[in-house]
Amino acid sequence: MRSDAAASPGGPAAEGATSHLIHRPRSSEHYLLDAPCTGEEHFVLVSRTPLGHPLFNDGPGHFHDIQGTAEMARQVGEFIGHQFFGLPAEQHAAFARLHLRITHLAAWRARPEQADLTVRVRARPTEVVRGVPRGVELRSELSLDDVECATGTASLAFLPPDPPLQYAPPPRPAVPSPEEREDGDAYGAPQRPAAAAEVGRGSPANVVVSEPAEAAPYGRFVTQLLASTYHRVFAAESGDHLSGMLLLEAMRQTALLAAGRTYGLTPSRATMATSRVLFRARAEPGLPLTCTAVPGPLGRDAQQRPSVPVTVTLTQYGRRVAEATSTVLQDF
């Protein structure tokens, strides 16, 4: 195989664009020995921004959707883990940590045509036990139309297929835990979806969170994951648990809603300028999931654009599933 050999990791994040992953090996040892790579490997992903995507092109169209790059990172990391680091093909990649940061906001402003997307990726196996890794870490620099505009780090855990249930699941608690009551959980109450425009989407079908609970303490916005939520993008990650992409979208939508209602930021011109997410546990389908956002003080970035830090926590029956610290930034 040549040093510039390319592969095309597919997936719903790349719809409307052809993607090529180019391996830039640091040595020829991998090919001479026909063995999995054991250290850091370098790649370049060449693609274009999505066109006509049912989720990532749904919205006001002011910015390219950075959520698409998160799902692309998971797909690329899964492909690299299987093809280059010897992880079993039946295992699927799930987010453990994710950090995204926009470094050049103007490059993310969308135009009618697709933008050229180039991502430089450094990948290494993690949690190696007896020569077998259990995960992959990616460090990336992203460019749109040759303008460097974002950086990212993703830690992926590779999980075996969920075994079939050999016993009945535990019964659902009759009374919510104290932690859930503090989060304003209203189990059994009808779920009213948030307005699509308030969460940065155009179609109500892409809204994944409810209107905030009225009983939530002042300064906290508590939404519920909609029980009817389904999207093939969210189903792309294998397994019987809720996908990391669905959890990321729920946190993004709740953060935008909180920043808009607290300080009047306009969701159609706002984006997540930074996002640092830690996934603590798998989320079970069919059980209520609460998303709590706490906006910080209103600030300004270097160009005097309105900026709001937001802390977001996902809980399920008192158990923390994921937590994020993000910055919502509004463009002029």
Automatic annotation (TrEMBL):
Residues 22-154, 199-328 form the A-factor biosynthesis hotdog domain. Transmembrane segments: none annotated. Residues 160-176 have a biased composition (Pro residues). It comes from the Bacteria. Residues 1-17, 186-197 have a biased composition (Low complexity). Residues 1-20, 160-203 are annotated as: Disordered. This is A-factor biosynthesis hotdog domain-containing protein. It comes from Streptomyces buecherae.
